[in-house]
Amino acid sequence: MTNLIEYEDANEEVRAVYDDIRATRQTEYINNFWKALANHPPTLRRTWENLKEIMAGPGEIDPLTRELIYIAVSVTNGCDYCIASHSAAARNKGMTEQMFGELMAITGAANMTNRFANGYKIPVDEIFKQ
What we know:
Blueprint: H1 12-25, H2 32-37, H3 41-56, H4 63-77, H5 80-92, H6 97-119
């Protein structure tokens, strides 16, 4: 199991990232994902900056939809940690159990039809090409 770096055991570079996570998320909690990445501070910093920009930065996709997309990809990739953490974030942004059920149905259907399309090597219709 990976060593989880707590705030009080972290160096200055890690503490700076933890402080930014806390400020951005308006919480004192640092989850285990970030504590694990803190074993390599450049990866922690780079990953946090990327995720912060994508998940909390400006854009046309609303925060709940961003979380729903993250959950769907995490389900497809089989990442239990990401499913749990982003499901909690989505619930905090308004996701209901009905929405989660619909998301799972869409994710399952997309995975099934993607595999059919790839397996049959179905050519893309001209009308779909842009």
